[in-house]
């Protein structure tokens, strides 16, 4: 290879001297120069520095690429761009994603969830088929586009370090209530302005909806609701008077409630309409219409996931479970 290069350079020098430098010689000269260019731009970081960048992001997964670049500058005295950081993170398998948002779980919450799941671990799909799962949900006209991103590997959304826990519902929204069970669903009940009290809960939810399902299913009927503040003694007295068995539910456990997946499906249907809602009235109309259109088979499949939800929660010792796998 060295002799070939020396020969070509000798020919080029002779041709230049004799003014006999034609296109073929120019092409040959280009081919000689190209191997040096093919080496590419020198990397601005070493392999050890690449590992430092990835480790810095893993230590605080909500750190932005620019913040990692600033930390790198302070530690090494070397300045690199945020794009360089992003490339190194991708090389380490880290990509920016919106974190999964879950309710804050204390040690007591996890213990209670684990105990509840162990108590219901032997329930079959036939047992869960007698339960009507209910819940409220809030729907907004627009989502929060300023949500923080988290750097994580693919398929790790539900790891504890990648979850963003929250403690409050968003504002500027409307609240709805509904219940689902195998082969059935309630109407979508819009909770109008004002505070939901125990009497309103009885008049607007239990009387027009739950009591009807109790009569249709019979003595095996079980009513699941959460632990909101308006679940008072008056509510329990009403359930007892109607012969409605209530399923005790662990606090802060919407991920165990299958209706959560239905709310997600409903939200996607509303967002995908040709004419998305622009105010509260059109939002209510869209929610009601899309609720009635949801396939019953979808609801049945989601309810039948209860066996797996309980198993997953036990495996995670009462921690957050992945709800996206139950659709």
Automatic annotation (TrEMBL):
Q: Which domain of life is it from?
A: Eukaryota
List the InterPro entries.
RNaseH_sf, Tc1-like_DDE_dom, Transposase_5, Transposase_Tc1-like
Question: Listed GO molecular functions?
Answer: DNA binding
Ranges for domain Tc1-like transposase DDE come to 131-276
Q: Which GO terms describe its biological process?
A: DNA integration; DNA transposition
Residues forming the Transposase Tc1-like domain are 50-122
Q: Report what the protein is called.
A: Transposable element Tcb1 transposase
């Amino acid at each position: 290879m060295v002799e070939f290069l020396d020969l070509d350079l000798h020919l080029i020098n002779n041709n230049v001297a004799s003014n006999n430098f034609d296109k073929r010689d120019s092409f040959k000269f280009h081919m000689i120069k190209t191997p040096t260019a093919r080496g590419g731009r020198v990397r601005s970081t070493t392999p050890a520095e690449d590992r430092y960048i990835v480790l810095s992001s893993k230590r605080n997964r909500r750190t932005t690429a620019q913040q990692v670049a600033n930390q790198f500058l302070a530690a090494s005295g070397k300045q690199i761009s945020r794009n360089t950081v992003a490339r190194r993170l991708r090389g380490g398998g880290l990509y920016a994603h919106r974190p999964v948002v879950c309710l804050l779980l204390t040690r007591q919450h996890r213990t209670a969830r684990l105990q509840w799941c162990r108590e219901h671990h032997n329930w079959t799909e036939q047992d869960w088929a007698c339960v009507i799962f209910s819940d409220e949900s809030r729907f907004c006209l627009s989502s929060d586009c300023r949500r923080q991103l988290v750097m994580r590997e693919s398929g790790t959304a539900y790891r504890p370090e990648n979850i963003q826990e929250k403690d409050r519902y968003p504002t500027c929204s409307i609240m709805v209530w509904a219940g689902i069970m195998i082969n059935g669903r309630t109407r979508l009940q819009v909770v109008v302005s004002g505070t939901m009290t125990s009497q309103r809960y009885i008049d607007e939810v239990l009387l027009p909806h739950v009591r009807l399902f109790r009569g249709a299913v019979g003595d095996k009927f079980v009513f699941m609701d959460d632990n909101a503040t308006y679940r008072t003694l008056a509510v329990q007295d009403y359930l007892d008077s109607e012969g409605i068995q209530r399923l005790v539910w662990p606090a802060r456990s919407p991920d165990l409630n299958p209706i959560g997946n239905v709310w997600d499906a409903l939200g996607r249907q509303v967002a995908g309409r040709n004419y998305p809602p622009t105010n509260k009235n059109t939002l209510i109309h869209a929610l009601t219409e899309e609720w009635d259109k949801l396939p019953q088979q979808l609801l049945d499949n989601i309810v039948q996931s209860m066996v797996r939800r309980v198993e997953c929660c036990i495996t995670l010792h009462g921690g957050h479970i992945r709800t996206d796998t139950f659709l």
